[in-house]
Structure formats: structure tokens, C-alpha cells
Design goal:
DNA-binding; homodimer; about 0% strand; Arc Repressor Mutant, subunit A; mainly alpha; elongated
DNA sequence: GCGATAAGAAACGCAAAGTATCTAAAGGGT
DNA sequence: ACCCTTTAGATACTTTGCGTTTCTTATCGC
């Protein structure tokens, strides 16, 4: 054996710490994850971790970043709605409670640490493999003439993930099949049809869709509302 | 004066504590809010607070619940798009960083305390005054023939708030006018048109819209994906 | 091998959580 | 007016984890 006094450095040590952090995250969650526990699990000590990362949030984000996005196999059920339900369900499974608890926790700290906010935002706004799946699903639906040709803005591409995450986080529980159905049937499918319609109508007026010249109160008028702002929900 | 030894009890004391909690929240935010500080500000002591609430999350939720939802004056700019932009902007202003930091923080704890999750979920899924505003805006657009008649499912009614909150929380910064524009133009307006179209077409097939009989992979098949579930974004 | 670098171990001060104990004030009932 | 139950308010305590400091010594580049 290497003996009781072998001492790792650099990359291998870093990997060990990140692995430990990830395992700890899976076992106790973000709220109960402590630097000390990660250090212990990695067989190292706190200062080694603090020398590399600024705190829990950064450590966890680094551990997360190592996990490569899983390319979801694009579902192919034969209908737009079926494909979307399958896709949304898969997202809902993967966005399990550990993941969401982590995101919620990191978010809480992101408000105080701009660099954490930046890392998190980057992580959440680039669901690259998912956007590909959405695109293929829609393309296939267009090919089947189930949907008029439509171009999907970035916002719409990332919407599935945003919807599911929002749902999962606000109810703090796994997203039910019923909810998935509602997201697909009440929101996403109609949205796709609407986008197609709007693009067919507005034709020339690219980019900013719909009634493109109409924005009356659009700029920064924003009306009254300057007062109380106590509540949102 | 009442003298240095006047002692509040019951409701008045409770109100004082909740006010203190709210003020503290506004000043230092959820992450840095401590029970001790709230007790000090309210001129009372920790045990008094712990006798009434289980911890930060419950205390803060109670303080929040006292703030009555502000009835937003329904904007009236003359166009659907203008009204929506104004409404979304107002939501974005009210969902300021304090609010979102609080929600994020409470969410973090909600995963460990089911009762907190319940309170939070209830609070977030009933944006009653907002749904009214959305309805009026849409009704007016329908009256102007800017939009075919359309019925809005609950999910669609709460979508504006969900979209803005999601945006605000994931980027940890105020939602820009540009983002608001994207939410309205790329998502919400097309969605409304799509809903109208779908309802006009599907006519009889109420409730669950679109291709109502098609759900192939809908049930619980959910395909592969059972393996890695490491990443979402 | 030598010297710079950095890991590992231990301990620190600090802050806040949550709990326990005690006192004395408030308020209700007679 | 009194007593008696309730509970506010004060204080102190244990625990936990943070983030830091110090010191020793293993590892690596030269």
C-alpha cells in the first residue's frame, strides 16, 4: 500500500474532494452539507478546501459542474404531445429533490455572492442537451404536419426545464404526472401552436413577434405600483 | 411612559415580533436573519419566539402572511402586449430581491420540514389578485378583438408570476426590461393565441386541450433514463 | 538532495441555534 | 382585593459549524 502517510496534491486531491462533496450532497443534502464533513469524507481537512473554494456554494457548484449533462435520448412516441410528456417526465425525474434542494440552497447564497449567482445562472440558462431534444421533437411534429413550421426562441427552448424546476421547487415534492400533463397540455403545446400562428401571421416582422409595433406601455412607464410592494403571491 | 417593566402578551406581542421579523428581513435578508436579532428588535427574547414558531422559516412565513396581497391595479394601455408588459414589469418590481431571497431560503428549509413546504406551496400557488388582473387584461383584449375568446386554465393564470419568479431567482438579480419583453413576446402572448386556437379547433374536447386522445408515452412509461440522473442543466 | 509549495492536523474565536431555568408581571376567576 | 395560573423576559448553557491561524512534514520541481 501507499502507506498511512501518502499525501495527494493538485488535481487528484481536487477530484477526491469534489467526489466527496457530491456524495455528501446526495446523502445529506445541501442544507446539512458541511465543509467539515466533506473534508472528512475526502480524507483531507478544511483548510485544503477553503484554499480552493469560497464556501459551500462554490464547492457544490464545482462538484455539480463535473457531472456532464446527460444527453437525453429524444423520445419518439409518434405524437407531439406524447413526446413532450415523456420529455417533461424525464426532466421531472432528473430534477429530483436533491437537485432542487441544492439549487434552492445555492440560490439563497447567490444573493450575497455575485460570483455564485453568475455561476448558477450560467449553469441554469444553458440546458444545451435539452434544447436539442426539444428542437428534434418539434421538428418531427412539423414533419408530420402536426404543427406548422415554427422557429423556437431561446426562451421557449429553455422553458420546459424552467417550468419543471419551478414546479418542483415550489412544491418541494416530486412533480406529479398530472402536473406534467398540465404543463404540456395547458402551456407548452398551446404555446408552440401560438408561436407558429404568430410567425405565420407576422411573417416579415421577425424576432419580436406578434403585434410588433404596438408596445404602448412597453418601455419603462411601468405605471404606478411604486408604493407598497409587500407581497407577490 | 408605560414604565420600563410593562410586559406585552398574546396578540400584541405576536404582532410586534412579526413586525420585527419583517423589518429584519427587509434590512438584512433571510440568510442573515437571526432569531436573536428579531427578538432584540422586538424587545423580547428568543424563548418567546421559539414558543410560537419552529424556526426561521415558520417565523418568516408568518410575518409574510400578515402582509395582505396587494391588489394590482389592472393596467390599461390599449393593447394586450402593452398591458402584459406593464403587468409583468410590476410583478418583477414587487418580486424584488428581498422577496426572492426569502423564498429561496425558505425553499431550502422546506425540503426538510414538510409543514414549511406546505405553507410555502400554498402561499405561492394562490396568486389570487394577480389572476384577476390577468383575466381582465385578456378579457379586454378579447373585447377589442385582439384575441379570440379564450378560457384560461389555472396554470396559465399563475404562469406570469411563475415565469417572473423563476427568472428573478435563477439570475439572482432584478429582472431586466428585456427579459420581461422576452417573457411577454416569446412566451405569454403566443401562448394566449395558441390557447385560443386550440380551443377553437378542439371545441368539444374541453379541459385537456389539443390532441386529446393521443397520449402514447404519456402514462408512466417514461422510457429509459433510469440510470444516471446526475445533471439537469 | 535542496528548497519552495502546499497538505494535513489541531486548535482557535466567533456566531447563532436551540434549550433550560428562574423571576416576576399580567390577567382571569372568585 | 386577592390568589393563582400563565407566560414574558432575562440569562446562561451546550452544540455545531464556520472560517482562520499555526505548525509540521510530505511531495515535487530543479
Amino acid at each position: 500500500m501507499t502507506g498511512p502517510k501518502s499525501r495527494r496534491r493538485g488535481a487528484p486531491l481536487e477530484q477526491a474532494i469534489l467526489d466527496a462533496a457530491w456524495d455528501e450532497l446526495r446523502e445529506v443534502g445541501y442544507a446539512r452539507l458541511t465543509i467539515e464533513a466533506v473534508a472528512a469524507r475526502a480524507g483531507t481537512s478544511k483548510p485544503v478546501i477553503y484554499r480552493r473554494w469560497g464556501g459551500r456554494a462554490e464547492l457544490v457548484l464545482a462538484a455539480w459542474a463535473r457531472k456532464l449533462p446527460v444527453e437525453p435520448e429524444t423520445p419518439d412516441t409518434g405524437t407531439l404531445r406524447g413526446d413532450l410528456r415523456t420529455l417533461f417526465s424525464r426532466i421531472a425525474r432528473r430534477a429530483d429533490s436533491m437537485m432542487n434542494e441544492m439549487v434552492a440552497g445555492v440560490m439563497g447564497e447567490a444573493f450575497r455572492h455575485p460570483e455564485v449567482a453568475a455561476l448558477l445562472g450560467e449553469r441554469l440558462s444553458n440546458p444545451s442537451p435539452l434544447t436539442g431534444a426539444v428542437r428534434s421533437i418539434v421538428d418531427r411534429a412539423v414533419a408530420r404536419a402536426e404543427l406548422p413550421p415554427v422557429e423556437l426562441p431561446h426562451r421557449v427552448l429553455r422553458l420546459p426545464l424552467d417550468l419543471v424546476r419551478n414546479e418542483s421547487m415550489t412544491c418541494g415534492a416530486p412533480v406529479s404526472e398530472e402536473t406534467v400533463g398540465s404543463l404540456v397540455d395547458d402551456v407548452y403545446v398551446p404555446l408552440l401552436h401560438g408561436l407558429a400562428a404568430v410567425q405565420a401571421a407576422g411573417g416579415a416582422a421577425e424576432g419580436r413577434g406578434v403585434a410588433a409595433g404596438s408596445g404602448v406601455g412597453a418601455g419603462s412607464g411601468l405605471g404606478a405600483g411604486g408604493g407598497v410592494r409587500e407581497d407577490v403571491g
